[in-house]
Amino acid sequence: MTVHEINDDDRFPAAKPKFFDTDIAVRLGMEGQPPARILLLYGSLRERSYSRLLVEEAARLLELFGAEARIFDPRGLPHADDVDSKNHPKVKELLQLSMWSEGHVWCSPERHGTITGLIKTQIDHLPLVSGGIRPTQGRTLAVMQVSGGSQSFNSVNQLRQLGRWMRMFTIPNQSSVAKAFEEFDEAGRMKPSSYYDRVVDVMEELVKFTLLLRGRAEYLVDRYSERVEEGRPLDPATDLASQAIAEHPVEKAKASNQ
Q1: Domains of the chain: residue spans and CATH
Q2: What pTM was computed for the model?
Q3: Which end of the chain is more exposed for a tag (fewer CB within 10 A), N or C?
Q4: What residues have CB less than 8 Å from 188, skipping those under 6 apart?
Q5: What is the rounded CA–CA span in Å between residue 118 and residue 101?
Q6: CA-wise closest residue to 126 among 100, 153, 155
């Protein structure tokens, strides 16, 4: 896979590390669980892409908070309506990463008052259903944007709309970085600011929600209308609610202590 690589610089020059919550899983009573798996998408191919730099900053934070982060490299991705695009290696790679993930981060520049074609193309390549599996449904989502001018929320609002359409759980917090060209140093690291603090907030919240939904997302997105269409009545043997609660790490811990 040509997943975009971030450098291995684990320093956080814009942060006050003593305030980091690096024990999220422990605080949720979920220690020993595998790390949350997060896929990050960005929306510009410029050499100095601020949406990419913001995603790289987010990925470092996610890993600090105990998650596993992978950034999709969209270079070479075809348009969604290209002939036989479903068999294109970049499309397959993107789909595989989404299947692997438990949560997403979408970050777009604001261009002409909206998201870019590149971020929309990536989302358009993720079908609602693929081989009987939904590659986005039930996953968490954090949305971010960068702007060349004053702060705006056009792109994050549209990303939220797309997340809802893709049946994702979009977390309450979000990040919008104004005048992004002023917010990163020459090395591409984010400078100290309230914008940086908000990115930390968003990534911390994303890890919390992703872990809390683990084992329960399938039940939360189970729908009456789909059960009717599939002829799938609920009974004790197939009750997703009971299964999800029983399998949740917190409930397992309670049971073992009784």
Answers
A1: 17-214 (3.40.50.360), 218-258 (no CATH)
A2: 0.85
A3: C
A4: 48, 53, 56
A5: 20
A6: 100
